[in-house]
Design a protein that fits this description.
4-stranded mixed sheet; two-stranded antiparallel ribbon; 32% helix; disordered C terminus; signal
Length: 223
Amino acid sequence: MNLKNMGALFLAGALAAGSLTGCSGGNQTAAPKESGNETTAQAGKTAGKQEKVTLRFAWWGDEGRHQATLKAIELYMDRNPNVTIEAEYGGFDGYQQKISTQLAGQTAPDIIQLNANWMPDYANKGDFFIHLQDYPDLMDVSGFDEEFLNSFCVFNDQLIALPTGMNARTAYMNKASAEKFGLDISLDDKLTWEDYIEDRGSRKGYDTEQGAVLSEIKQKRLR
C-alpha cells in the first residue's frame, strides 16, 4: 500500500468502528517525517480527502456481517466520494491461510480483519502492519481501554490493530449430571472459579481422571 494513501486508510478504518489492521505494504514501516511545517501524517490527512484512493478491505463472517459491513462501506464512500473501498469477504474456512499467503507475497489487502491469537505469529514473521501510534492526528485511540489494547493489539511494542468489539466465553453445566454427582448448582449463590476448581473440578465421573475440562478457555480472539 502506498504511504500517500495513509489518510484514506485511517478514515476508512473509522467506518468499521476503529477495527482491524492496516497493511503497510511489505516490510516498510510507516512513520511520520517532517516536511517543512507539516508532517507526512498531516499532509496525508489533507491529501486523503482530495485525491482518488482505492483500498481493499478483507473480512470473514456470515451473511449478516457481510451485509452490515457492505452498508457501512457504501455509507462511507457516499460521504467520501474520492475513496473507493473494494470488499473481499467470505467464510472463515481458509481465511487465515489466504491472508498469510498474501502477507508473505506482499499482496495483502489494506485493511484486514484478524483474530488476536494469530497476531503474535504475524508480528514475529515481519513488519507487515502500520504502527498506529505513529499517526495520532489520523487515529484517535483514546476511547479504547489501554490495558485491553496492550493485551490484544500491541506486539513488539507497536500498536498494530484495533478491536472491533469484545466477547466472552460461557460455560454450561448439565443439571441432570450435576445432580447425579451431588453438585449444588443453585443459582441462589454466586459460583466462583474457586468453587469450580475446588468442588466441581475435583469430582470424577465416567472413568475419567478429571472432573471437568474447559478447552481453550484462555484463547484470545479479535472480532
